[in-house]
Each structure stands twice: as C-alpha cells, then as structure tokens.
UniProtKB/TrEMBL annotation:
It comes from Gracilibacillus kekensis. FAD binds at residues 17, 36, 44, 49, 89, 123, 287, 327. It catalyses: 2 reduced [2Fe-2S]-[ferredoxin] + NADP(+) + H(+) = 2 oxidized [2Fe-2S]-[ferredoxin] + NADPH. This is Ferredoxin--NADP reductase. The chain crosses the membrane at residues 6-25. InterPro entries: FAD/NAD-bd_sf (IPR036188), FAD/NAD-binding_dom (IPR023753), Fd--NADP_Rdtase_type_2 (IPR022890), Ferredoxin-NADP_redctase_2 (IPR050097). Keywords: FAD, Flavoprotein, Membrane, NADP, Oxidoreductase, Transmembrane, Transmembrane helix. The lineage of its organism: Bacteria, Bacillati, Bacillota, Bacilli, Bacillales. SUPFAM superfamilies: FAD/NAD(P)-binding domain (SSF51905). GO terms for molecular function: ferredoxin-NADP+ reductase activity; flavin adenine dinucleotide binding; NADP binding. Gene3D superfamilies: FAD/NAD(P)-binding domain. Coiled coil: none annotated. Its cofactor is FAD. Pfam families: Pyr_redox_2 (PF07992).
Amino acid sequence: MDNQDLFDITIIGGGTTGLFATYYATMRGMKVKLLESQSQFGGKVMQFFPEKLIYDVGGFPAISGEDLVQQMIAQAERHQPVMLTDQWVETIDNDGKHFTLQTSSGDRHLSKSVLLATGSGTFHTKRSDDWHALPYPAFRKQVPTNLMNREKYADKKVVIASNNKVGVGWALYLKDKAESVTIINPDSSFHQVKQNDLDLLLKSSVQVHFQTAFTDLFMENDRLQAIEISNSENEKHIIDAEEILTFHGLELEPTPFDKWEIETRKARITVKGNMATNVSGIFAAGDIVQYDGKTNLIASGYTEAITAINKAHKFIDPTVTEQLYSTVIYRG
C-alpha cells in the first residue's frame, strides 16, 4: 500500500496510551492514523494481563485488562480514525514538509506530525521446540498465547503448555472455571514462580506434568479432541483436551529509535513537559518516555497523550487553541 493521504498526526503504538491519544486527537478535530505492530490493539495490557483486574484507572473501581482495552477501542473509533494493525514502522523520514513512515510490509504513510507510543518495542511469544513438530500447523498458529476471551474456557478441558509463572497464573485462574486444567511443562520446574503460587498449584485440582513434551494432536472436524504427551522416560499418555494455551517466554524486538534519529537514554526517550523529542514534529508518550517524576501507570499515559496531542496540534497549526474541554467541544 502506498498511502498518499496526508494525516495531521500518525500515532505509532496501539496500546492504552496510543488508543487514548487516537481518541483525543480526533476529538480535537485532527485527521488521525494509528499504526500498531501487533495483530491486535491493547499493547502490554492485552498481551500480558487481559484477565487481571486493574484498580488504578479513574472511573473504574475495578476492570479487567481486556474490558478496559475493548472500551478504549470503542472510544478511539468514535470519530472514525484510520486504525491499522500489523504495521511495524522501520523508517521515519522528513522532507521538510511532512513525515514519511515506511513499514516492514512496504506500506508508506504520510503525516504532518508523529506521536511515539511504542513502549520499548514489540514482544513475540516463544513456543517450545516440540510444539513446532506437531501436525495441523494452521491450528497451532491460532492457539492463544494470552487469556483474552477468557470466557470461552468455562467448562472446557484446558491444556496449558508453559514452563513459567504465566502458565501457572493461567492455571490458578482457570482451575475453578474450566472442567479440567492440565499443565505440560518441558522442564523440571517452573521459572520465576512465587513459592505461594506453586504451593497453591500443586495442592489444586490442576494436573501438572514435568519434563513432558507434546507428541501428537487429535482433531475431529477441525476441533481439538485430545493431545498425546511423552515424559522423560518416553512413556506416552493421551489427555482429553478442548482448548490449548501456550507460553514459554517472550522475545523483544526493540523499537528502532536509532533509525528514526530519536535520542534515547537508557532505552527511554527523555522529554520535557511538552512531550517533544529531539526531532521537531515528533512527540512521545507512555512507558517509553522519561522525565522527572515519571510514573509508569496506564493513567499516566493518558495525561502524557493529552499534552503530546495538544502540542502536536499547535505544531502543525499555530492558530489553534492549545486546550479545549470536551464539554465545550460536544456542547449542544
């Protein structure tokens, strides 16, 4: 795609900060495009803790990560911005008139200003070696690596492939919701697990298999029926299964700030109160920025996004009012 439409601002990163920035910029009347490198919006909240309750976002006494992200997507879409996934931005060039953002897929995006809400990069989930040797590659590719859509596991026979605290957390969450939960761990222990969580796991109804590998999948009409596993003594067992989750750690693909000529210090962008980077017309917000008094909270990203959008708006049009209240914008 060679997109010749010129946008007022392009926001890189579709996590909670980027989603709120998208809404706020459209509320201010800006023409907005949001680019997310992953196949879904929500960033770390959706990838790491969609099932966990969040208690420190204003207006919500408690809300799950997934529910928060879904509400933020609905809010961001209110004024119909362009929101794209699977867009890894490789280069940002400035010809003095506008920025050209080039993605790894060959797409080009033109923008008068840019907001970086990328975090430190994008995380790719690891899978165990035995997983790649199994049949049904199309099915394996679709197996979740997080607990999004967690309701679908209710009253199901769930198998979790994991060697670390994430898999243990899933099992403890699902043990009273699923019909059965089984963990397949290729190692002899779980990594980075608190002893209390491990004790709860081993005393629960969850079936735990150490030093065990997947050896086969059994499907019927494109539905999982069972799995075959093999332990360290080469003993094979068949376990009934309807759903699988898998997580064996993460690999970080860092945001290419050097290629974008963005100055960083200790892998973060140092900004002042205006959220501006060292490149004129490029602003930043969220976990990636650093300044005196910085807090790494979801709510902090909202206020940083507001400042960055207002400053970007003023950058492209010095005549605009820098701040407007929503009650004024939506009046009548």
